[in-house]
Give the backbone structure.
Amino acid sequence: MVKSRPYVIISAAISIDGKIATNTGRSNLSSKKDLIRIHGLRKSVDAILVGKNTVQTDDPLLTVRYVKGKSPIRIILDPRGKSSAKSKVIMTATKIPTIIVTLENVSKNDEKFIAHGVQMIKCGKKIINLKKLLQILKKQGINKILVEGGGTTNWYFLKQQLVDEIIVTVAPYIVGGRTAISFVEGKGFTKISNSFKLKKIQRMQNELVLYYVT
Ligand SMILES: NC(=O)c1ccc[n+]([C@@H]2O[C@H](COP(=O)([O-])OP(=O)(O)OC[C@H]3O[C@@H](n4cnc5c(N)ncnc54)[C@H](O)[C@@H]3O)[C@@H](O)[C@H]2O)c1
Ligand SMILES: Nc1nc(=O)c(N)c(NC[C@H](O)[C@H](O)[C@H](O)COP(=O)(O)O)[nH]1
């Protein structure tokens, strides 16, 4: 059966204790070798998607740089359109297609983003309706999406069972801290039920890359 939504992969690097960043927002967990692997993965998808906080904290480029290849479309979930126009993703939107997704009734900063070459998608009333968004993206020819976090974004996708694959690097660090962001944030599940199948394990020196599928 052909799905009416794109194939969704969640990718992240976690510490041994399951954190994706320190309580000060530092998230450089992957080794250079792992970053090369991730950029290979980026090259293989049609779009990379992140949440607003990741843009704010990391100011990422979300491009393919460590390997040769075309950068995919970049998508930011930013319900209230609060991202800084000075962020790298927006500053480079004329070169690499970039989409900002806001709620339907939010348009205050649209012109500012559009002036930088960003495409705006409106989707959802209280929170971004991911099912609807994925359908819109599929219609735009996006068949494979890499969700690169952070924890809140991962939760929204997992909660609605919109994830086909999880690729997680266990990096050799302990981060700790009650307020340090975990791989999956949000309310969390009340039961241990959402199981995935372990498809592949890759060992890279002190890191372990785990590939899970639904
Ligand atoms: N180690 C890693 O692999 C990795 C990867 C990505 C981010 N990070 C780290 O994670 C931290 C950020 O994570 P986070 O959990 O705070 O935020 P996030 O990046 O997931 O952004 C969350 C925000 O995105 C928006 N959002 C996402 N889904 C939405 C939906 N369905 N509806 C409405 N709004 C939605 C909301 O504004 C929400 O507050 C940063 O410190 C970053 O460095 C680490
Ligand atoms: N797999 C992975 N390992 C990490 O150590 C890390 N920090 C991220 N984080 C994903 C998140 O989306 C970041 O913002 C980008 O990894 C930064 O992206 P750029 O290098 O600027 O393209 N992801």
